[in-house]
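Researcher: Here's a chain I'd like modeled. Treat it as a single chain, no partners, no ligands.
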Amino acid sequence: MEILLVEDEPSVISLIERGLKGENHSISIAMDGFTGLKMAGLNQYDLIILDVMLPGMNGLEICRNIRKTNKDVPILILSALNQTEDIVEAFNRDADDYLTKPFKLDELRARINRQSRKARQQTTTSNTITIDNLVMDRDSKNVQRGGKSVILTATEYRLLEYLMVNKNKILSRVDILEEVWGMDFNMSTNVVDVYVNYLRKKIDHPTEKKLIHTVIGMGYILRNEN
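Model: Modeled as a single isolated chain. Structure tokens:
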């Protein structure tokens, strides 16, 4: 994979470079926010890893700016900020994953491999998913409900895609958190509920027919109840 690492701590850069050596990854380094954003715009990467606290421009601002022109490149936030609100804010800026410092190299490798698998899966799965009058085009990332376009953030899109691929199946918060965010379940984390609520407002609230359902004590399910 072609990886852009935007990180200003030499020790972290060295750790990641050593840890990924020999795994067929090519790593480009930027040590400040402005350089990182410029490199992201000039080159094509398979993954971008962003620290949050950077000189010049913080990682969340870089993420927001990248998403203006590139909706597809996976972005992994690497940060010492570990509160729920910090994580939610990163996903609100359309990051794909979030790993807190200090981290273990095995976990970083697992997150990178997960993004690589997801990229391969997207080339082999059906391009269009339809449930009732909800339609998702996975090539264009376009979603429609009743013929009207629904504007989603990247995180909202991934959550809806996971629900639609697994239609009629109850998905626990653990399942969703691990698949959509690549995070281990934490009892204090309500990010799943927050984003399900975001989706409901955009997918279900404009219509009388609801597709996203809560199964008390178990999780969520997307189904067409006739």
